[in-house]
Protein 1
Amino acid sequence: MKKFKFTIHGNDYTVDVHGIEENLARLEVNGTPYDVELHRTVKVSKTPTLIRPAIKQQVNPEIEKREGGSSHPILAPLPGAITKLEVGKGDIVEKGQLLLIMEAMKMENRVLADRAGVVENIRVQQGDSVLQGDIIMEIV
């Protein structure tokens, strides 16, 4: 927030600028709030906006969780793109088994299971982009 003091025709004004979005400025003049339209060309950002598709939750009643167990998330180790899925929903996996291959920083990275179990949910598909820490699948 920026504060300005103006004197116009002998009258003092205190102006607080709360924010400017596109052609609309939110101001407070001597304690009274105003929305002011600016007459200027809106700058178009050259940076594209990333819009990720909604993740569809898949439920398979055939998979039963272990007694007292809960799902264990497998996280993306770094940002990249999924190039190949090596397992499917309902598959039994062993610790250290290859789950998927992803491309990150122009290199193929192998994502391995860090525990044995059953693949309960796969949240990505081949070609999807992921960010570091995104849940890519769950094992029970």
Protein 2
Amino acid sequence: MQRRIPRLAAGLVAAAGVLALTACGSGFGGSSPSGSASGGLTSGKGALTVLIGSSGDAETAAVKQQVADWSKSSGTKATVQAASDLNQQLSQGFASGKPADVFYLGADTFANYAKQGSLLAYGDRLKNKGDYYPALVKSFTYENKFYCAPKDFSTLALEINTKLWDAAGLKDSDVPTTWDQLKTVAQKLTKGKVTGLVTSNEYQRLGAFMTEAGGNLMNDTSTKATADSAANKQALTYVQDGLKSGWWKFTKDVGAGWGGEAFGKQLAAMTIEGNWITGAMKSDYPGIDYKVVPLPAGPAGKGTLQFTNCWGIAADSPNQAAAVKLVEQLTSSDDQLAFAKAFGPMPSIESAADGWKQEYPDYSAFIDSAAFAKGVPTAVGSTDVVTDLNSKLASLKTADIGSLLATTQKNLSALQG
């Protein structure tokens, strides 16, 4: 789970490594690795290897504990390794023909591996496949195949500094539910060194407004570019107007590295971040009182972006059958709620939502937003395009929005061949 600043650009290293490979994965339809078959899956006797990209000791310990519990009950040995550089180690594993059996895989990079035949497309085999949020399933679907189980996810919401809110004379009834209301309260909150709303300039934040206007960079399955749309132009024009008026600033313009820092240092009365901000506020800015509310609806209604990882399984795994069973356990309600308690992610299955909200009622806006969340582009090569877009969005205040979106449309369309 990417927490503080989830970026599509994080997949560039992995993408480069994958595209440099030949078709090293055997794939479901290719020659099987050694081991007997179990329902079309390989079934060996060796230990499973699990490779994760950990946020810290708490996450590593939690995954090791849940895998150990499964190993004890199933009789299949399994080891967990926390990667120092997940993308690099994944690429190296596939290149050598000895990848981990099970591993974290980001939505922004998985299509690169799927295209090369390196992944087992096991999603339709999962007993709980109907329990995953549909938008998450779309994020891990390539050429109409559901490849891997979403392991958890994040959405964007609006964080409000309650002390600054009260000082501005605002009430609970003033919490913005529309773009116009967001502008109104942000103007009232902008005073001295405090800006009403501060966000990063990335698509990974501003794209939420595209969804609220009825747009996004690509369609839900990342098979068609939709960047050059009236909805996206309307969204970026709204942001641009806020920047010009001064009630909205980018983090770079207030001397902060990300929205959580600007918010924690009270340079921002409001910011837009995912549920990773809760851990950062607790550890870095424990004295700041704040509340989390859904993003205000736009012209097309409610919208937000989601970020997610899945549990990938290697096509070359000699024990795919056991790997699938392990993933089913790790994405069960009990295991996902245990992970949430240990290091904060939201469960990827709908049946665990109520349990998560009961545990974290103050943060329910994050998981409630799953109902209208849209995924980021997952098409092979889209990370490069989004990186280029982000560089242009840094100058959005004075940019020609039509030209900016036209260039992005051209670049994304080129990915479709």
